[in-house]
Amino acid sequence: MVHLVTWIVGSILILLSGVHLYWMAGGKKGTIAVVPSKGRKPLFRPTMAATGAVALSLAAAGWFALALGGAAGRLPLSESFYSYGGWALSAIFLIRAVGDFRWVGFFKKHKGTVFAKWDSALYSPLCVFLGVCLVIMTLH
Question: Where are the transmembrane segments (predicted)?
Fold first, then answer.
């Protein structure tokens, strides 16, 4: 079971990294739904460098998840690196799901935008799923 969870989490994170690389390369599909907005005006415009940093972070998180679950080779680091890293990565996703109480997460105040709808329907639930799966993987 943990092996399957490992592959699912790692695959999702690597896929999301690829989507960010697509945007970094100039792709436009889906961009209206991924940045919080005030009405139709985005709160910020991600730079190419920021999008690349997110892509790199997601790829690293994907590799880490695969290594944590034993599906990829581990770096020669202490077991506590993987344990603390698993808890930290899990916390990042669970905190993202809760959100900032304004624009993102389950408890956001601003609703009714394209981003807010996708955040409630997909992004926040996905973050809970990833966070809980990482807890399971870390405990295993």
Answer: 6-25, 46-69, 81-99, 120-139
Give the domain range for residue 86: 2-139
CB atoms within 10 A of CB 77: 10
User: What is the per-residue DSSP string for 13-73?
Assistant: HHHHHHHHHHHHTT--TTGGGSS-EETTEES----HHHHHHHHHHHHHHHHHHHHHTTSSP
pTM: 0.93
Please state, as a whole number, how many other Cβ atoms lie within 10 Å of the Cβ of residue 113: 22
For the chain, how many structural domains are there in total? 1
CB atoms within 10 A of CB 28: 8
**28-41 pLDDT tens trace:** 999 999 999 998 89
